Structures are given as C-alpha cells and as structure tokens.
Amino acid sequence: MKAITYTKKEIVKRVAERLSKTVDGTSKYIDETFKVMKDMLCEDELRLRIEIRNFGVFEVKPTKAKPRARNPRTNEEVYVPAHKKTHFKPGKIVKTHLSKPLT
Predict the structure, then answer these.
(1) Could you report the per-residue pLDDT of 17-58, keeping only the tens digit for each?
(2) For 54-96, how does the pLDDT look when each residue is reduced to its tens digit (9 = 90+)?
(3) What's the CATH architecture for 45-103?
(4) Nearest Cα residue to 29 out of 42, 12, 13
(5) What are the two backbone dihedrals, phi and then psi, of residue 14, each rounded to the nearest 5 degrees?
(6) How far is CA 15 from the centre of its chain?
(7) What is the DSSP string of the chain?
(8) pTM of the model
C-alpha cells in the first residue's frame, strides 16, 4: 500500500478553501508559520516544546553520546556524539482518531 504524501502546497490550498481566501494570500501566512516554528525548534536550548492544543507537541530532546555504536555495513565501531533530536507527540483528538481500528 502506497502512502499519500501531502505537501505544504496542499496545506495552503485546503486552508485557503476553508477560509474562502486566495492561495497566494494564504501561502504567506502558512510559510511564515512554518518559518517561525523552524526557528523555534532550531534555538540553542537543550530542551524545547512547541505545544499546539488539540493537535500535539513538538519537542527537542537531548540524546546521550554513544561511544560504542556500530556501523551495520562494515561492523566497525564508531563514536556518536551527543546531539538533539525532534519528537512529535499527537494530541488527544489526533491520538484517539489514529487509534481506531482499521476497517
């Protein structure tokens, strides 16, 4: 089964339809929203959360260094330094909808 991929263009189109606005006008707001979220996630904070009620939480979390990680292709041991990773936790409404059985 092939996954459906939605792009930012599709998001802009749907928001414009719901608000009865032009795609060009809506595009500016969506672009700026994503730019602000990207800038927030890229801040120099060790732990960071962007909470959007009824949608979910974007989090930046630190990881530990892994001194004995292994490259699966070569079996060579490599050092992976500590870094940050992103995580998304869906909100209650989204989680409830996604947990329904497939029919």
Answers:
(1) 999 999 999 999 999 999 999 999 999 999 999 999 989 999
(2) 899 999 999 999 999 999 999 999 999 999 999 999 999 999 9
(3) Irregular (4.10)
(4) 12
(5) -70, -40
(6) 19
(7) -PPP---HHHHHHHHHHHHT--HHHHHHHHHHHHHHHHHHHTSS-SSEEEEETTTEEEEEEE---EEEEE-TTT--EEEE---EEEEEEE-HHHHHHHTSPP-
(8) 0.78
- Residue 45 is which amino acid? E
Domain assignments of the chain as residue spans, ordered by start: 1-42, 45-103
Q: Smallest Cα–Cα separation from 62: which of 51, 77, 47? A: 47
Alpha carbon 38 to chain centroid, angstroms:
10
* 68 C-beta neighbours (distance < 10 Å), count: 8
Q: Are the C-beta atoms of 86 and 58 separated by less than 8 Å?
A: yes
Question: The tokens of 26 are what?
Answer: 């809506």
